Amino acid sequence: MKSLVLIGGGHAHMITLSKLESFISKGYQVTVIQPSDYHYYSGMGPGMLGGTYAPDDIRFATKTLVESKGGRFVKAHASRIDPEQQMVYLEESDEKIKYDVLSCNAGSYVPKNIVTGRGNNVFTAKPIEELNRAKETILEKLNEGPISIAVIGGGPAAAEIAGNIHQLCKQKALHQPHIQLFSGHGLMSKGSARVQKLVRKLLVRKGIEIIEKGYVKKVADGTITVENDITYRADIIFPAIGVKPSEIFSKSGLDVGPDGGLKVNSFLQSTSHVNIFGGGDCIYYADQPLDKVGVYAVRQNLVLYHNLMAALEEKRLEKFSPGGDYLLIYNLGDGEGVLSKWSFTFSGKLAFIIKDYIDRKFIKLHAYVDDSGYFFKKD
Ligand SMILES: Cc1cc2nc3c(=O)[nH]c(=O)nc-3n(C[C@H](O)[C@H](O)[C@H](O)COP(=O)(O)OP(=O)(O)OC[C@H]3O[C@@H](n4cnc5c(N)ncnc54)[C@H](O)[C@@H]3O)c2cc1C
Q1: Domains of the chain
Q2: Which of 15, 42, 277 best tests ligand 1's pocket when mutated (most atoms within 8 Å of CB)?
Q3: pLDDT tens digit string along 24-81?
Q4: Which of 29, 103, 123, 182 can pair with 277 through a Cys bridge, CB separation 3.0 to 4.6 Å?
């Protein structure tokens, strides 16, 4: 009996997971490896930090779904792949999982190499579930007295986190913490001049201090050291300094891109091993390196599903086309956002209303609710 193994039940595996029975009914064994019973929808993560959404509103019950469809769910981190023996190794146990076809959607992580010392009260922007733990810590600490919070990073994740911390404290009618955003040499520097201006305006209006005196080089026990050796103190620190693909592939002797992501061709197939596929933040798409945004992971779903089935059945693979420009909406807290597509950009309540509508629709499309929580939609 052939075996399909999925590493991570991320955004690019949603259709494969929702159609798992189509593999099982053909006699294939399916195993899904993931460190959490749930997969969190990242687009709503900052809103969960800000208290707009509860964890249940933004997550998918991967374990329940897989088991309800006859697959096997293994709660673990995949640590390494042996492509010659066709085995996946796990971080938490000695079990090795055999595959005939493997698909990787293990996402990305925020490097913590600037953090030394005990790392207490340091929360990264990923995994998204960290943001819920961060929320509880902020509320606990604020009950003890005034605090300062540092967000390190100048991109969308950092801006969204800073704005939503402000919302969280405002909603709970607590003293506002002093929020500092360490944005290196410029805030939203990959966005247009208008996006930069609007994001800055909204954050400054909330009283968030934007520090652009250079990159943070060290975080140790509540002290933040910037390039020019100026230091700052903070009670809670969020490194949101960009993401890197999961490290599994560089440890496994597979072809990888310059960022360490699994190098794939236009069939989303490893360029070194024909029975390994992947999607989302953990791949390096050789034809045209893609931004690390959920939009591409979502667009890869259908092709990945088709190609996994085709690989098992030894049929023709389909090509993935990344598609054109995509809509960007940033949730900056307090029901406000910045929306941008092509040269059209605006900020305010409407931007957030549109984002909230799209995000909730996405969750509804892939999930339904019953007494025990959220499940992927049954097709
Ligand atoms: C704060 C924040 C907000 C964002 N907002 C947006 C947005 O609004 N729109 C947008 O398009 N993009 C957004 N992004 C980018 C987006 O998060 C990523 O591009 C998207 O999550 C990629 O999806 P993925 O499925 O590849 O990875 P992930 O969402 O990271 O999913 C990976 C899955 O793999 C599992 N996994 C991890 N390691 C292992 C392992 N070793 N073994 C097995 N399983 C593993 C994880 O548990 C997880 O379920 C945001 C990012 C952040 C940090």
Answers
A1: 3-35+76-109+243-325 (3.50.50.60), 115-242 (3.50.50.60)
A2: 42
A3: 999 999 999 999 999 999 999 999 999 999 999 999 999 999 999 999 999 999 999 9
A4: 103
